[in-house]
Amino acid sequence: MVTRARQDRLLALLLRNGAWATASVLADMLGVTPRSVRSYVTALNARVDSGAVVESGPLGYRAGPGASAAWRPGESDAATPRDRLHILVRALLDNSEGIDVFETADRLHVSPATLEADLARVRGLLGGTALVLERSAERARLVGTEAAQRRLLSSLAHDEMDAGSFDLEALRRALGVGSAGAGAFGQFKVDLVQALGAEGYFVNEIGISDVLMHIAIAADRVSHGHPLEGVSGYVRPATDQIAEILGTLAERHLGIRLGAGDRRHLATLVSTRVVAPGAASTSEEARAPLDADVETSVRAVVIEAAAEFLVDIAHEDFIVRLALHVQNLRLRAQEQAWSRNPLTRSLKSTYPMMFEVAVFIASGLHERLGIPILDDEIAYIAMHVGGRLERSRRADHLLTATIVCPGYYELHELLRSSVDRSLGQAVEVVGVETRIDPDWESITTDLVLTTIDPPAPNDRVVRIQPFLTDADVERVQNAAGRVRRGRRLARLRTELERYFDAGAFVRGVDSHAGEDGVIRQLGDRLVARGVIDENYVERTIERERLSSTAFTDALAVPHAMGMTASRTAIAIGIAEPSMVWGDGRVQVIALVAFSENDREAFQTVFEQFVEVFSERDSVQRIVRRGTDFAAFLDELVAVIDG
User: Fold this and answer.
1) Which residues lie below 8 Å from residue 172, measured CB to CB, with a gap of 6+?
2) Which CATH number fits the domain 491-641, given the four candidates 3.30.450.40, 1.10.287.130, 3.40.930.10, 3.30.450.20?
3) Do 2-71 and 491-641 fold alike per CATH?
4) Burial of 501 (0-12, 13-18, 19+ CB in 10 A)
5) By the 8 A CB rule, do 431 and 445 touch?
6) Are 536 and 564 in contact (CB under 8 A)?
7) What CA–CA distance (Å, rounded) separates 400 from 382?
8) Omega before 577 cis (within 30°)?
9) List of long-range contacts for 106-115, beta carbons under 8 Å, 24+ apart
10) What is the pTM of this model?
């Protein structure tokens, strides 16, 4: 039922955020009233016998010690339509001759009419699966290949899990109580990683969880007499070696003898999701399995992305690694065997610019190679992008520092050595003052690390001891963080004041019109001002369909790929209450149109704007007080200024 789902959503939010949240904030995130939130809290606390699921206090609500027990309930009892749906699918998958509708209704303690409605929902799950639900009198059965049935079971298992994370208890609920337990898979994974490493492979720990889920499904299906007879499509030569490893481990830990079809199928999954050439491989060895069209397409798209976003990613090692990933992605797409990424949500909200580059690359690859790329797969591309950018961005993040340490033997030299050793990733010491009365006004570095008191306090001056302590290191790191954030937000304030337009502010957007309707509503304001044309609006809708631009739990930033606006402008829409956007809900929609001349400003505005709206308290302040454009801008600037 809807209420149960919203209770689960509330608990998921509290578990993810970890901090206190008021009823009104949670209500906005769920799209309900504060009164409903309070009723959900009461229902959640009733799920367990001891230990509060949700704690209440002056600051609102937060997840309590009983949250895990409530979030990971025991075996499904068919109390809800979702539970019955999963039980029905399992029954249909396990019984090739089908199920008796009336007997099943009795077993689940529901009326035949209710079960008929549940079967209709099963049919809804089958779209695009190559499976058909056949009905003959009182019997219903699934018709389709074993591979298609396993894909359905995989979808069912993912539905039981939260955010794509691997949870064996949730998997057992999807497969049924007779499936293998967590203990068996724990050692299975350890031995698998060790065996793959011994063969010279680099193992992707994020992807391996998803592969373990497929191994569990294969073991369950084989144990019920449903093996895979063969593997269609391309099979890598290296899979024979991996297949042997999997067959041995399945027999040792799961007590299952996998046939040739299952071993080759699982080996293909491992080779396309989990392993890559190890560090010892030469560039020629890494490139050897690459298809020419994949490498050519990746190279072209990466060069375009580097120019479009002014990012330093057009490097040969990056192109080869990404091309290997894309080739595996194409193989997965042929089998519709998508790889889940538990980091998708956090990558999108924490590194929106990096994710945006990945979306651009994904779009280009879709056009050139015809690969449909989902959000989880885009997140893997974003991880490649982030790894490349991290190698080239360190110098940009270093702050300069001057040490003030009155001379006494080699004391200042020892202090500088300690600072370099402990803080070299954050600051670069460019000067040392050894006078007891330095000219403070002449010191212009980002930070001043001093062992003596300055004449006047200053945000960039940090008092430290002559012999650096852990507390000193922490204070310098905090000061460096404040300086960097202050600079970013100062640039953001300057840019936003240029780009906002009072005529492109809408409080109370038509949330019933959905994402497309709100984009058009805000886009019309910018079209009327000559900033963009109708084509830009349509391309913004196309970009939204590639991957949701809801980068935080409160903010969506729809935009088109391609900086074709006549000038840069931002249209703001406020949803009252929050509206559905992608998989979540948002209250602020910022339609951003960038011009070619402001290409360098894109990163500043895009990433830092998302940063401001990632703080829930700031969002509530801006939304509740920003009753018109002037008030909205005042509150936004006040939040930026701290």
Assistant:
1) 179, 181
2) 3.40.930.10
3) no
4) middle
5) yes
6) yes
7) 30
8) yes
9) 108/78, 108/84, 109/78, 110/78, 110/84, 115/84, 115/88
10) 0.70
Per-residue DSSP letters for 576-604?
A: EEEEEETTEEEEEEEEEE--GGGHHHHHH
What CATH architecture applies to the domain 2-71? Orthogonal Bundle (1.10)
> Tell me: the pLDDT tens digits for 182-229?
557 778 888 998 998 888 787 877 778 778 888 888 888 888 888 987
Token pair belonging to 203: 């193992």
458: tokens are: 């200053």
What are residue 547's phi and psi, to 5 degrees? Answer: -165, 130
Cβ-Cβ contacts under 8 Å for 235 (sequence gap 6 or more) = 264, 268
Tokens 């980091």, residue located: 343
CATH number, span 283-395: 1.10.1790.10
CA-based nearest residue to 247, from 255, 187, 237: 255
Sequence spans of domains, the chain: 2-71, 174-277, 283-395, 398-468, 491-641
pLDDT profile of the chain (642 residues), mean per 10: 71 81 84 86 83 85 82 51 80 88 86 88 83 89 89 76 54 57 72 87 77 85 84 60 91 89 87 66 56 92 92 89 88 74 83 91 93 88 86 66 88 90 87 91 93 88 93 92 82 79 90 93 95 95 93 90 90 91 90 87 78 82 88 84 67
Report the amino acid identity of residue 289.
Answer: P
